[in-house]
Specification:
Length: 394
């Protein structure tokens, strides 16, 4: 909390990851986390409060509509009530099957000595085809990818294979306990669930949850798929503007909204981030501002091609952050001019490079302190410049 206080944060995004999916988030656990945020260990107040929960996970039972899924929905509703009673009104969540996010390297070293998370399609295919040995995996890759994956795998040491599997499984719940057989068993549960069926399950979930969220004055922001293309034969339903339009139209409520992640959505050349801000307007409830570099650049507007990408510093990458932030400020002005009390769009600087002391902190992958604070300074600089009296961009 000391570090956060140094950089001028207005509020806190936090979660209760130790609570298993499908289990009620109790008032006691919420209060405990709030006190950890409001006070330093020596009792001094931080003047910060917990305003956004990220994430309130949706269980695999709910996504599959199997097992205890109805009980889990009721538990989810109770968790929302408990959070709302504690003053936490914005929820970031996702509906990604099994994997929360996927990378093949957690500390890829760049030429300047910093490190970042990276996805390499050839290494991922080597894992899928030769370590996991998933049925029918061959059809998901081109001949060129299959051949290069086989070549790389033939040269991998046991240590390198273990490191690759560990990096990929880092996005799995309980990753430290996962074995190859566990992953295959989890994938088998989705063998009869395609994109249409998963979307139907998501809409069923929204139909149950969103009316309650609206009554509680809460905002539900769905995070996009990461990366936003199919992996391991699993369907993806939150990867494009059209995906989100289908979900928002299906349950048309101000509570049903988007967590707009410029990193996840920015991987695809057919996603236009400033356009999404304008298209979805008041349905955007939270933003993750970060950037990625596609190593095989895709022309804007073209469909996705599987390829390599790495998480970059905030101002360099696929997404034009100046254009995106200009669209965000325009939307905030619209909300303010219309007298909306929640006119400010909450955001956090997401991911970024491990630089300076980050390299020795052994922090959670994707969450370097100094790299994200550098990103926050750059974002605030853009906001200050675009908001200046002499700037006519708005």
């Amino acid at each position: 909390m000391n570090d956060i206080m140094h950089v001028g944060a207005k509020s806190i995004v936090s979660a209760l990851h130790h609570i298993p999916d499908g289990v009620i988030v109790t008032p006691e656990e919420i209060a405990k986390r709030q006190n950890e945020i409001r006070y330093l260990p020596d009792g001094r107040p931080t003047d910060l409060d917990w305003e956004i929960i990220e994430s309130l996970p949706v269980s695999e039972d709910i996504k599959q509509q199997s097992g205890n899924w109805r009980e889990h929905i009721e538990n989810y509703k109770q968790s929302l009530k408990n959070l709302a009673s504690a003053g936490i009104k914005t929820v970031c969540y996702n509906f990604m099957p099994i994997l929360d996010w996927t990378r093949t390297e957690l500390a890829h070293r760049l030429p300047n000595g910093s490190t970042c998370m990276r996805f390499d399609i050839y290494d991922f295919a080597a894992y899928d085809l030769h370590l996991l040995q998933r049925d029918s995996a061959e059809q998901d890759y081109t001949e060129e990818v299959r051949e290069e994956a086989a070549r790389r795998f033939s040269f991998m040491s046991d240590e390198q294979k273990e490191s690759l599997a560990s990096s990929i499984m880092c996005g799995l719940p309980g990753a430290e306990k996962q074995k190859i057989s566990d992953v295959l068993d989890a994938l088998a549960l989705y063998k009869d669930i395609d994109e249409d069926k998963l979307r139907s399950h998501f809409i069923d979930f929204l139909s149950e949850i969103i009316p309650l969220a609206e009554r509680l004055g809460m905002k539900m922001g769905c995070h996009p798929d990461d990366p936003p293309f199919p992996l391991l034969g699993l369907p993806r339903i939150s990867s494009t503007q059209e995906h989100y339009k289908l979900l928002l139209d299906a349950v048309d409520s101000p509570a049903n909204g988007v967590t707009l992640c410029s990193g996840s959505m920015g991987i695809r050349g057919d996603n236009n981030l400033p356009e999404m801000v304008d298209q979805f307007k008041e349905r955007i409830h939270f933003l993750h501002i970060r950037n990625v570099v596609s190593e095989q650049p895709q022309p804007k507007g073209e469909p996705i091609r599987l390829g390599n990408f790495y998480e970059s510093e905030h101002l360099i990458g696929n997404t034009d952050l100046v254009a995106l932030i200009a669209a965000i400020l325009k939307e905030e002005k619209r909300r303010k001019d219309e007298g909306m009390s929640d006119w400010e769009l909450p955001f956090r600087p997401d991911h970024g490079l491990d630089i300076l002391d980050d390299l020795f902190r052994n922090s959670q992958p994707g969450y370097p302190t100094i790299g994200r604070m550098k990103g926050l300074a750059e974002i605030n600089g853009i906001i200050a410049a675009l908001s200046h009296d002499h700037c006519n961009m708005l």
